[in-house]
Amino acid sequence: MRWRTPFALALATLLVSCSSVNCTSVGCGTGVQIDLRALPLLPGKASELKVCVDRECQTIRPESSALQLVQAPSTIKKETAVVVAVTMKGPDGATLVSDSITTDLGKFEPNGPKCGPTCYGAAVRVTAEGRLEREGVAG
């Protein structure tokens, strides 16, 4: 009978140490990454960029032509289809890009499945012709 208590404690310690998960602390955000690198942006050409993920929109006023990647945040917390819309206007107000696409938000867990956070994302790119194309899951 006396051997059962130390054995039970040793077994419990072994089980707890084997089931512990070492987590890193990499963060992430939910949303859609939009790649603008294919656009032939010249200095001063774009004066306003509006990006929407479903009905969540943000407007950016680029200060230079160095704008290459935009992260459009979202409050959606599940794997689902979303509509991504991009509108870019020039300094004269003319529309340079206006397109939308449906893409799927994919789940990603940068620290592993048993460690937070869990985020949902997608990636799209704007072609040189101003059309949106799917790229996959952004992470």
What does this structure look like?
The protein is mainly beta. The protein has a single domain, classed as Immunoglobulin-like, CATH 2.60.40. It is built from 1 helix and 9 strands. The strands form 2 sheets. Strands 1, 4, 7, 8 and 9 form a 5-stranded mixed β-sheet that branches. A 4-stranded antiparallel β-sheet has the order 3-2-5-6, with no helix packed on it. 20% of the residues are buried. The N terminus is likely disordered.
List keywords for this structure.
139 residues; Immunoglobulin-like; five-stranded mixed sheet; four-stranded antiparallel sheet; 9 strands; elongated; disordered N terminus
Give the overall pLDDT as a whole number: 81
**Number of structural units classed as domains:** 1
CATH topology: Immunoglobulin-like
Q: Helical content, roughly?
A: 10-25%
The tally of strands reads: 9
For the record, the CATH class is Mainly Beta
Quaternary state reads single chain
Sheet with the most strands, sense and barrel status: 5 strands, mixed
Order of helices and strands: HEEEEEEEEE
What radius of gyration results from the CA coordinates? 23 Å
Number of helices: 1
Shape: elongated
CATH architecture descriptor name: Sandwich
N- and C-termini, Cα separation: 54 Å
* SSE-based structural type: mainly beta
* Percentage beta strand: 35-45%
Instruction: Pick out the low-confidence regions.
Output: 3-19
